[in-house]
Amino acid sequence: MTTNVSLIEKKQESLTFECETGNYHTFCPISCVAWLYQKIEDSFFLVVGTKTCGYFLQNALGVMIFAEPRYAMAELEEGDISAQLNDSKELKRLCLQIKQDRNPSVIVWIGTCTTEIIKMDLEGMAPRLEAEIGIPIVVARANGLDYAFTQGEDTVLAAMSHRCPEINTQIEFDKKIPKKVTPNIESVTEKALAFASEKIGLKSLNLKKKNSHLKGSSGTEQEYLLRQEGLGVEKTKSHPPLVLFGSLPATVATQLNMELKRQGITVSGWLPSQRYTELPSVGEGVYVCGVNPFLSRTATTLMRRRKCKLIGAPFPIGPDGTRAWIEKICSVFEYEAKGLEKREASIWNGLEDYLELIRGKSVFFMGDNLLEVSLARFLIRCGMIVYEIGIPYMDKRFQAAELALLQKTCHDMNVPIPRIVEKPDNYNQIQRIRELQPDLAITGMAHANPLEARGISTKWSVEFTFAQIHGFTNARDILELVTRPLRRNQSLEGLGWTKLVKSAF
Amino acid sequence: MKLAYWMYAGPAHIGTLRVASSFKNVHAIMHAPLGDDYFNVMRSMLERERDFTPVTASIVDRHVLARGSQEKVVENITRKDKEERPDLILLTPTCTSSILQEDLQNFVNRAALESKSDVILADVNHYRVNELQAADRTLEQVVRYYIEKAKKQNNLEIIKTEKPSANIIGIFTLGFHNQHDCREIKRLFNDLGIDINEVIPEGGSVVNLKKLPKAWFNFIPYREVGLMAGKYLEKEFQMPCITTTPMGLVETAASIQEIFQALKTIDPLAEEKFHVKNKKSIEEYIDQQARFISQAAWFSRSIDCQNFTGKKAVVFGDATHAASMTKILSREMGLRVSCAGTYCKHDADWFREQVQGFCDEVLITDDHTLVGDMIARVEPAAIFGTQMERHIGKRLDIPCGVISAPVHIQNFPLGFRPFLGYEGTNQIADLVYNSFTLGMEDHLLEIFGGHDTKEVITKSLSTDSGLTWTPDGLAELNRIPGFVRGKVKRNTEKFARENSMNQINVEVMFAAKESVGA
């Protein structure tokens, strides 16, 4: 118990980041095809790799493989490795076969470790083949050399963001504004302010011009004027286009759309959309906001390459996160968020039966899917004590708002800030778990059964990736997952068989 | 390049890892990128292992690509040596390290100097061999290493045990019903008055490998893994190597007879000296078991089994199980095996020879679409195959019994389910019978138009709800997975009624979810 206390006391009052050896268990990022092929209905994912990749997909995705999946392996053989075969010709042959069998609207090539090592020029080959076979080919390098698990989705969405149509009206719209009017301000909120002033500037500019010029954008201008004069039609109140990025089940996307609609904000599109042919338009002046913490490359690409403006917000996981997420978007558009406090409170009320179970209990995140910070922040708000947040990779800029909320939450709940361990070392973590004896370890399947056998309750972390956890509506689903081992143990309590290994742990 | 959706045998390193983690106190270190340690998940989930799988990765990342592994692999080996003190550390190459072509042997040599554990590099080429071949090779490699080490240290135990004894070689983690088979073989040997010397690799210790030559003979239950080690020991110590798989009544008898032939070469009076159970002769024992202890012979004779006569079946799996199953079905149950096949392409000749005369055609392939096409063409009454064939059967509405890896978690049963020995024959009879009756029941139901001729009109108990679903609500409802849709619908309607709403749209649905939390 003494070590227990000392380890807790060691924790700091401000955020600190540790980095271990990176010897941890996670899924290979190619696993993203599992949910992305289902999300993007007219796609086909071709994983260019070896038997190892194929074996992983086949085993990790279980029964899905038998439902005529829209993904396959381009399995590299010895001739491909030693360059006796021509990569381009081989890929063309396979892609033509896919075109004939499935006729998808897009083929996504997933580059793997092997294509990296043999330096197969997928990006170079894709445009040529695309022209030859007439199907768009998107290249994403989702390999285990560079990325972990959910980051696979990030690489695919980053690649796909190049394929989003350019928003034309916006270009014309922007062309009319003299460049100097766009001030180079860092803060997003200030950028929004700048945007608003641009609009006003534009209005006056346009009014001075001939009326014929107004025809193109007269609708929005009139709405704008109405709003200015306080005659606002709430629902059609104009704001710059907002595109959300991150792959979510259609139901959850609808829920988040509706949350924003309640605030008068219209979501003009999602990356990815339900179909490749419906990718949202992006471009200068479009605001984008992420829904998942692992999408930093996509965010960077949208900002740098597509000139979008990023709204940095906490992620809509848990009622606290969802509220903060909506408030941040509202604030950027200078809307006053309405009724959120009440709504958040009512959601918390509905969770009370679950909260009773977990209040005061401790949790240890071993780290494997990058959702850890958001989940930890939510669980701390629920009254849990988080000992450690293991995480594969921490983008402090993209997660800045989430980290700030974590810090604030710890302060509000009067608990020490947990240590955040990047690239954790599973062996060391197991030693720490042994010392701390947390009430719950959130971990991968490789460690779950052995930990359970040693009397440590575990929740399999991958479930958080596949379950619906976003928005107000799904807060209960997160707790359903978190409390499941605790509820199960309640029903087994009294049987006396908690430790089921002979060795001392 | 090959367009592939599914594979029967895994990549080479899986075979090596299965050998390593089957032994006690052996640790495998994979030279692999992040995410390639999926083996740990499989072992922990499928086998429901209580212990941490003794496999770690020496991660290959960008830095390794740029500068080579350098100290990393050596450090990982010596670290593991200190942390867990294994007897043996097995450095396992993967497809990635195959193409990096780093001198892993050099790392092993350097690490061996510093560590107390033995260190060896698994000698497998990812692009030439599959999981089963790699497992076979690695097992032979480990056995050879420890035999040679013992020779050098002069502590090899070559004096035969007093009573006849056997090594069982090839019982594995993640093997198809291997644990149960092992128990059944031990029981059989106990009946026969044969002691068990060593069982490898499952539960075995590498330190004890020097005792292998003490046994009178080696017993290799499965062709896929263990044969190389068996042949090595045969060559080195002239130990007889029994490779007849005791699966089915006829083959079990053949296997027992082969064992006693081998014992006689060592001690001509073996049979008389060491009585089988109840002091019977071998022939008597086999006859007793077949006629009265096992139910399979009687089952074949019973009128139930008559109905199977001439029914078409297809068999597919690894060489051992597919060949044995083909022979059981056609020889012991009177079925007609239209096609027998295996994905063990490297063992095709042996397979053909085994099933000759027991089936109409032979299919050697590792492409599941060819197997699927064959099944669709043959239209058998039942399939006996792997999980893949089970799914093909589902699609074609043909029942399937699973007889071979690759398998899912349901094929790691907790109860005692051997496929080998006399209890194995009972299990196989059940499996075959259950597959067919299900098929026939289905067929009869179809003929007589289902279980009940009355159509079920409504699934809900209340007659009129007075609620209307808007199109968007209905669309959202249809997105909910079938198995919970009814519950969600009921809860939503209840919520709507309580709040006196009579139109249900998406918003009401979500509000209902939030309020009841269902």
TrEMBL record, chain A:
It catalyses: chlorophyllide a + oxidized 2[4Fe-4S]-[ferredoxin] + 2 ADP + 2 phosphate = protochlorophyllide a + reduced 2[4Fe-4S]-[ferredoxin] + 2 ATP + 2 H2O. It is an enzyme of class 1 (oxidoreductase). Keywords: 4Fe-4S, ATP-binding, Chlorophyll biosynthesis, Chloroplast, Iron, Iron-sulfur, Metal-binding, Nucleotide-binding, Oxidoreductase, Photosynthesis, Plastid. Its cofactor is [4Fe-4S] cluster. Gene3D superfamilies: Nitrogenase molybdenum iron protein domain (3.40.50.1980). Residues 28-484 form the Nitrogenase/oxidoreductase component domain. Pathway: Porphyrin-containing compound metabolism; chlorophyll biosynthesis (light-independent). Pfam families: Oxidored_nitro. It is found in: Plastid, Chloroplast. Binds 1 [4Fe-4S] cluster per heterodimer. The cluster is bound at the heterodimer interface by residues from both subunits. One of its GO terms (molecular function) is ATP binding. Component of the dark-operative protochlorophyllide reductase (DPOR) that uses Mg-ATP and reduced ferredoxin to reduce ring D of protochlorophyllide (Pchlide) to form chlorophyllide a (Chlide). This reaction is light-independent. The NB-protein (ChlN-ChlB) is the catalytic component of the complex. Protochlorophyllide reductase is composed of three subunits; ChlL, ChlN and ChlB. Forms a heterotetramer of two ChlB and two ChlN subunits. PANTHER family: LIGHT-INDEPENDENT PROTOCHLOROPHYLLIDE REDUCTASE SUBUNIT N. This is Light-independent protochlorophyllide reductase subunit N.
From TrEMBL, chain B:
It comes from the Eukaryota. GO terms for biological process: light-independent chlorophyll biosynthetic process; photosynthesis, dark reaction. GO terms for molecular function: 4 iron, 4 sulfur cluster binding; ATP binding; metal ion binding; oxidoreductase activity, acting on iron-sulfur proteins as donors; oxidoreductase activity, acting on the CH-CH group of donors, iron-sulfur protein as acceptor. One of its GO terms (cellular component) is chloroplast. Binds 1 [4Fe-4S] cluster per heterodimer. The cluster is bound at the heterodimer interface by residues from both subunits. It holds the Pfam family Oxidored_nitro. The keyword Oxidoreductase applies. SUPFAM superfamilies: Helical backbone' metal receptor (SSF53807). Gene3D superfamilies: 1.20.89.20, Nitrogenase molybdenum iron protein domain, Proto-chlorophyllide reductase 57 kD subunit B. Its cofactor is [4Fe-4S] cluster. Residues 12-436 form the Nitrogenase/oxidoreductase component domain. Pathway: Porphyrin-containing compound metabolism; chlorophyll biosynthesis (light-independent). The active site is at residue 304. It catalyses: chlorophyllide a + oxidized 2[4Fe-4S]-[ferredoxin] + 2 ADP + 2 phosphate = protochlorophyllide a + reduced 2[4Fe-4S]-[ferredoxin] + 2 ATP + 2 H2O. It is an enzyme of class 1 (oxidoreductase). Protochlorophyllide reductase is composed of three subunits; ChlL, ChlN and ChlB. Forms a heterotetramer of two ChlB and two ChlN subunits. Component of the dark-operative protochlorophyllide reductase (DPOR) that uses Mg-ATP and reduced ferredoxin to reduce ring D of protochlorophyllide (Pchlide) to form chlorophyllide a (Chlide). This reaction is light-independent. The NB-protein (ChlN-ChlB) is the catalytic component of the complex. Belongs to the ChlB/BchB/BchZ family. This is Light-independent protochlorophyllide reductase subunit B. It comes from Fusochloris perforata.
